[in-house]
Every structure is written in C-alpha cells, then in structure tokens.
Amino acid sequence: MNNKKIAPFFYALLLAACGGGSGSDGGSTLSPIGSGLTPPAAISAASTANSSESTVTLSWQPVNGANSYEIWRSIANASGADATPQLVKRSDQTSFTDSGLIPATSYVYSLKSCMGNACSGGFEIKAKTLGKPLALPARANAPILLKSEDRQISFSWANVSGATGYRLQRNDGWEIANGAQLTQTTYTDTGLTAATSYIYRVQACNSSGCSEWSEAFTTKTTALPTPPVTPPVVTPPVLPIPAVPAPPTATVAGADSINVAWTAVNGASRYVLMRNNLAIGGNTLTAVRFLDSGLSAAVSFSYTVQACNNSGCSAASGATIVKINTANKIILNVSGLDTSLNGNVALSMDGYENGRWVRRTETISGNGSVTSNTTVETGQQYGASISAQPANGQTCNTSPNGRVSTASGGDVSIVLNCLTPATLSFASASQTMLTDITNDMAQLATVKNSAAKTITTGAVRYSSSNTTVAQVNVNTGAITALQPGTATISASLPANLYTAGTASYTLTVAKNLASTRLRAIDIAQVLAQRPGSAYQILVPGRDVLVRAYLYAISASDKRVPQVLLSVRGNATEIAMTCPATLPLDSGAVTPSYTLAQTCNATLPAALVKNGMQIDVRTSDGQTLNSAPAMNDSNTLKLTLIPLKINAHTAQMPSSADVSIAVRRTMPFTNVQIGLHAEWTPNGTWDDSLTSSGSGSDQWGKVLGLVDALRISENADGHYYGFVPNIKWSSTAGIGYVGGPTAIGLDMRDDADLSSLNRTMIHELGHTLSLSHAPCGGVARFDPFFTSLPLAWPNSDSGQLSEVPLYNQAATTLETPGELGNRNTDIMAYCSGLWFSEYSYHKMARYIQGKNSYGSQAIASAEQMLVTPVSGQRMMLISGNIATNGSVNLEPVHLLGTRHQASAAKGDYQLRIISQDGNVILQRFAGIVTDHDSAIRIAVVLPAVANIASIDVLKDGKALLTRPQTQASALKAAGNILATSRWTNGEFATAKRQGNKLQIRWDNHLYPWMSAVYISVDGKRSMLSLNATGGSLDLPVTPGLAGGSFEISLSDGLNAVIKTIPF
C-alpha cells in the first residue's frame, strides 16, 4: 500500500480467526480454506480502545472452535489498491495493536476466526486514528475596557491565532458565561453591583486545550446616581430623541414563534416593536428582545423597531423580513431490514429546520413507514445516507442517497432498502440420525452475503420433505427423528429480506437400537429452557447447567449408559451425573424440577461463548446437539446510594447480597457493585417520601434528583438509591423504563431481603426496558401477557410458564408452582421472585443492543472515534413535564468537560434563547416511569452563554413552562436588596476547615449551589446538588488528598463555576 498517496482517508480492519498461519504480514486478500476443516463461527462483536495518532488497538470476543484469528486492513472510502484488504496479522490472541498508521485517518478492519486454515467471514469495524494535536493557543492579552456602567461592564480582548473559543473568569477564579467557550472577542457582564471593582481574565482554547489565563484586568462599575435630598422644582431638560436603531435580527424559534432582537440605543428608555406596521409587546418594552408567538407558517413577517424616551420615539429602523417555513415530515419507507435478532441500521439524516441545516444520526429498527425526527422546510434540500450498516452483515442503501432532493411542499419520503443478496449452505450434504431423537441441531444453515461474509440471522426457515420420517422446527432447524427412512431438510430465507436460493441436505434416519432413549436437553443459568425455544437465551462467561432427559425403554433393563457432554471444537468431555434408575420412557418429555431425575453436568464458564454448540452423547450410540441462543453483553455496573432523608440514613444491603440477587434473576455474568457516599437530596421531604396525596410526587422528585446525581458524576452504569423505610408507604420503589436510575426502600426490618429480592430487582427490571406484568392491581402492563393466543396458560394473570427456575448460587431447581396457581412475574404486584421467560428474554435483548453492558466496550459494525472539544464545558437542563402538560424546570446545572451530549432525538424540543437573541433548539426524548406520572427532562448539551429564557416545545409549539428564574429576573431588574449584597463584588467563599468544606454564598444573587469533588483520576463525586440557604458545611472524607472541588452557583438560568484545588 502506498501511504504517500493517503490524505485524511478512512481505513478499515477485517478480523478473522484462523490457524496454521506463519504470522506473515502480507499475502493474498483471500483466506485459504483448509481441506476437511469447517470454519468456526464468525466473530460477533469487537471494540477499539486507546487509539493514538499512529495506532489502533482492537479486541474481540473469542469464538468457540477457533484457534487463531486474522486481521485484515484497508482504507475506508479509498479506491484501487488502498481499498483492497491486506492481511496484517495472524494471532492466537483476542486483541491486537496495529501501528505505523496515518494520523486522522479511518481504517476498516476485518476480523476472521479460523480453525487451521479454514476461516470464517470477516467482522468489520471502523476505527479512526487521532489527529495530530494542534498547538495550544498563545496566552491571551488582558482584556480592555469598552464601557462601564452601574450594573454592567463591557470589555474586549485581542483575537489569538489558533484559538477557536474563549473562556472568561471574574474575580477570584469564577468562570462566567456558564463556562461556555465564546467565539466572539467582546463580552458584557451584567447584574453587577454599582461602584464595585471587578477583575477579569480570558483564556484562549482549541481542540488541544486552553492556554494559561491572561493577566488580570481590573475595572469598576460606576456609582448609582445620587438623588438630591430636596429635588428642585425645575423643568426637566428636554432629552434628544434617540437615534434610529439598526434593523433587528429575527430568528425562527419554533413552529409558531420568531425571536426578535436588536441593539440597545444610547438614551433610549423603552422600545416599540412593530410587526407588519402594528405594534406588538406594548409600548413599554425595556428589553432588547421579544419572542413573538402564535404566528402562522408560510407567512412573511416584517419587523421594525423604534427607540423611545420621554421626548419621543425615533423613526422606525430598517425592516427585517422573516417567514416560518412549513416543516415537512421526512417519512422513511423501510423494507428488507432483518429484525429477527434485534437488527438495526444507523442513518445520517439531513434536513432543514428553523432556518438552519441540521444533520442527525437516527437508528432504524423496524420495517414499514417511519417518521424521522428530522424535518425539512419547503424549498430546502433533504436526504439520508447510511452511517452504520446492520451488525448482522446485511447491506442497506437509501434513495435518494445524501442531501440531493428538494422539498416542494408537503411530507417527503426516503426509501431505505435493506434487501440483501445472500447464499445459504449446509456444511455437509448428508446427515444420519437415530429414531426417537428430538430437537437435535446437528446441522444448521450458514448464511453469507455477496462478499462471503457470514450473516447472523434468526430469519432462516426450515422444512422437511418427509414429515413421517423427520420433522424440523421451522425456526430453529432442530430435528425430531420419527422412523427409519430419508428426508430432505431444506433451508430458505424470506424473500422480503434476502435474495437467496435454498439449501438442503439429505437426512437418513436409522432405527434406534439403544437400550435407552435420549429425548431432550435443557440448559440453565437462571431458567432451564430447551435450546431453540422461543425465549431461550444465555450470557457468555457464566456456568451453564446442562440436563439430559434420558429414559429407560424397559423397567427390567436397568442399564444406565455413560453420558458425555462437550462443546464442539473443544476436546474436553464432561461425564454427566445420571440417576441410578432411569425413569420409564413414555414418548413425552415433561419438565423435571429436581436434578436427581435427569442426567446433569455443568459447563464451566470458560467454555460458554457466543456461537457455542453443545453435544451430548451416550455410550449406547445416541447423540443430541444444540446451538443455544446467546447474548454478547453480560456486565451490569451498579452504584448503590444510601439516601439521607431528614435525619435518617438508609440501611444498605451488602454488595455480595446485591450481586447474588442480580445473578439469581437477571441475564448477567458480572455484577460490578459500587457504594456511593451518603447523599442528601435537597428539598423538603416526608419520612419514607410519603404524605397524604403527595407520596408519589415526592418519589418522582427524588428519583429525578438521583438521576441528576448520576449525570453530574458522569458515571457508567445504573444508579439505585435506597430510601430510609421509617413508616409505611404505599410506594416501595420507582424506576425509569429504559433509563438507568431507580430508587426503593432500604433494608430496615427486612429479614427476608424483600427490598432487595423483590423491590430492587423489580425496579432494575424497569431500567432494563420492562413494563409491568398484570397482577395485583397494576394499572398499565405489557400487552404481551394478555395477547391472544396466550403465550402459556394464565400468562394473562402474570403467572410464570412451566419452565424450571434455577438458583445457580445454591445449585438447586425450583418449581414455578402448580398450573393455575403458579408464581407471578416479579414485574407484577403479587410478590413474585422470578422473571417470566418472556421478561427475561426481553431484558437480555435490550442489554444486547446497548454497548454499555459489555465486559469491554463492544462496538457495532461501524465505530468511529470522536475526540470531544477540549475544555468544552457542558450543562444539564432538567425538570418535568406534568401530566397536564405544564413544564417545571430545575436550575441550570453546569457539568464538567468530559460529559457527552444527549442524543438529539425525540418528540420534544428545548428552546434556549440567549441574551443576544440567539436561539438554540435541542430535541430530546422524555424519560418515563411505568406509572401515570410526570415525564422527566434531562438534557446534556454544550454550555450556552447568557441565557435569557428556556422553554419546552411539543410539535414546535411551546408548553406552559415555569422555570426557576426568580433570582435571574431580580438581577436583570437590579432589585436585590443592598443589605443582601456582599461587598467588593464578592458573592461566595469556599474554604477547608478540618474535615469540612465551608461554603458561603450570596443566595439572593444565586439561590442554588452545587459542589463536586474531582479526584486525581478525574472521578466526580457530587457533594451537594442545588443546595439553598447561602451556607453549607460539607463533610470531607478524612485522609482525602489531591484532586479539586468544583463549586457552581446558579440563579436558575445562568451559573458561575469555580475550581478549587484540594
């Protein structure tokens, strides 16, 4: 490959598992297929980590039956030789660091699993090397004064070469303008105290970081005018009429709103704003902006402004004309997407909204008509392109591709077609089985795309040409051999998903002459299920109980053959323990709820991997094979928080008990428990969060605060808060559905660990996407349970199926109960202790679709590394949308510089208007519980400087919003009592006193204070969130050393923040 030709191109790596190679870094572009060897399963998941300017580190999950792996590399979006994959490494390891790469370049890697020289198709993953860091900007010069007034100071600073933004400090290290990186080189600091000195510094930043702070610039606000003791009786001087204002700016701010802003005019005390020559907003406007709402789309509006004082008004300014263009929906017509294993495809959607181009990434997970989160205005271009192909190996395309079409009026459509050419094959043209063998998966079809890469799918359908000889499960390919003879077993793919022929093999069934009958097997980590059953699922790296249902043909023949268990591709065979006397064969298999009634053995965790095939064989000649369904993701990160409500601190379970409870019921191998320090949610609460008529509201509010705690601490995984159980509450817990936060009662008076085994597991089920099950007066439940035909008897009452329950820690089986009176799903309100197999499977598939549950960060088929802007401070805007549609916003909360922005998708929008008239519209999806309660707002976005207002839009129109802005309004009006003011421009102090951090602040100016400790390794620990009162002593852990404290003060809309070294 000629690297001299490479500019910032994308590279791609192909990873394959192979054997017998010499470790050569070159060779042909095709993996040799060894004679007589069957390639192992393809790699199903891989990740990149710790990439640098010249290296990419890859890791992948091991594949059963593979003894080596191949790594192939090419350049993404290249042509010629650069686009041809080259073999860069053969290895028996499951990680590889590729070196000598080009900075800021994307590579495509194809990873193959091999046995000998027989290799699978490749798993593709994209990775981008980091760009060479820019040089830090030079230190900025000290700011210079532009204008000083009694309540505000305007200043500027010189542009610094190489800087993309600037941060500002006031006085003793307090960052102002919400810590945002400003792109302009002027700033007006408002809400100040008259006749007071202020110190300012500026810092220049780019993607590599920020310079040192500039030298200090000190200036002083002017004094307030002193009124005479006895005003003389004189005729007031005639003031000159103000000058004509410059034309205003007008920005579309929603489906029915335009934000109009203008520059202040010297000598003006008020303004008159005209829309189409009619005054709006009254004739006493003192602000220099106005949000004009209730407007119609597709109508042009002309705005002018007049500057006025007691002498009169100026002539009207020049006109600014703006129109709210009709927002047309973009409809995606999706076809051919294989969703049999939760497949999805990622799109880059291009649209035009509120006068701006927008591009969003959207994930499509179903066929049919899908309305995009992105819209396009009439007369503007729109389009879509594939940003990540389905991980299963399908190939999708869009038409039109890219932003090439123009909306002419009305909704527009884009075709997303995933119909994929494919081939089906069986490893062997023939197969032999014995009669009376059921549910045998000895040979399953392999699906490959046109590039000979394996497609992972659950859409293959099987059929038998002779069902009197052998029947085949249409979905799983499992064979039941009935009588001697032959049958053709065929496999096909749905014509609406794949263009593929059929594949078949000849099955010969011979008479079973064994002295026993091997009828079935089941496998268990939590639930003992038959491989291939509708809801069977395992997780990798966790022991699996395997049971063989072996029966005697005759009561007089008491011989018990040896039964051996193995994993295909591994030479180890495990002897199964069988009953001394086998039960008699009746031709049917009923679930057994005791280990002693079946042959059983445990597969050790090291053998339990994705793609595993299990073989059970008896010494009298019978075999039974299975290919269990398995997740890739298997790790839960869970932080437990002892909440302090009033004077009571929650009593906590042990980490061991929590881990046991989770592993007993949930599809996880690893449970990583973290214990948070005691935390007090700010507010006024009743004990156990219960009071007449307001208990659920208190629960919801505390849940929201715990979620804000999780976000502020930038934590991975789930947060679960324990509420002190002081008195009976009708609520035991609450959690967000599909959101990683929940709370529940603590362990007081809980000898049977009910708060752990029932409440906590129930609420964690919500966070893993589960709704309620129908029992115990549940108002809203998952419709699956009552859908006809019922999935199993009495599912409409939330009862479990007949599947045995396996307590792995105790190595015991449990029965779900008698038919008609079985135990209920733990997601109901009927004291259940286990998930139904439906709920368990739904959780597992939800986990499978989330990168955060991998034991390592598992990437999808396409992964791009994104380098965040260095020093870009983020902010959290949070609150609730009540059931009546009104919005209550919490104080704006500043975060760190490592937080990731929330995905811009959902039915709602935040509308943020800054004091200079800029409008930011940010889409978001509300977070809900499975109760009739408020919708949670929690949006992380880059900090916005000088916010004037925040509200929430639905369908482009504002909901009634009540932000906490009292202090902000007082600041703007300058009405804070002088007695509440601190002196010399100060407004807060923070100092260490022994094992306490003493914080004092002007709570009239900034009612809300938050404090975070940041350790040396960057871990954030929230000490206080939105505390009030102006004084707080925070305990500091004895022996704590290093790190820093981050103190932020908020007036509701804007905040200042300061970092204090420990």
From TrEMBL:
Ranges of residues in domain Fibronectin type-III: 39-133, 139-225
Keyword set, alphabetical order: Repeat
InterPro entries, alphabetized: Big_2, FN3_dom, FN3_sf, Ig-like_fold, Invasin/intimin_cell_adhesion, Striated_Muscle_Regulatory
SUPFAM superfamilies membership: Fibronectin type III, Invasin/intimin cell-adhesion fragments, Metalloproteases ('zincins'), catalytic domain
Pfam families, sorted: Big_2 (PF02368), fn3 (PF00041)
Repeat as UniProt keyword: yes
Residues in coiled coil: none
SMART domains: FN3
PANTHER family: FIBRONECTIN TYPE-III DOMAIN-CONTAINING PROTEIN (PTHR13817:SF73), TITIN (PTHR13817)
Protein name as annotated: Fibronectin type-III domain-containing protein
UniProt lineage: Bacteria, Pseudomonadati, Pseudomonadota, Betaproteobacteria, Burkholderiales
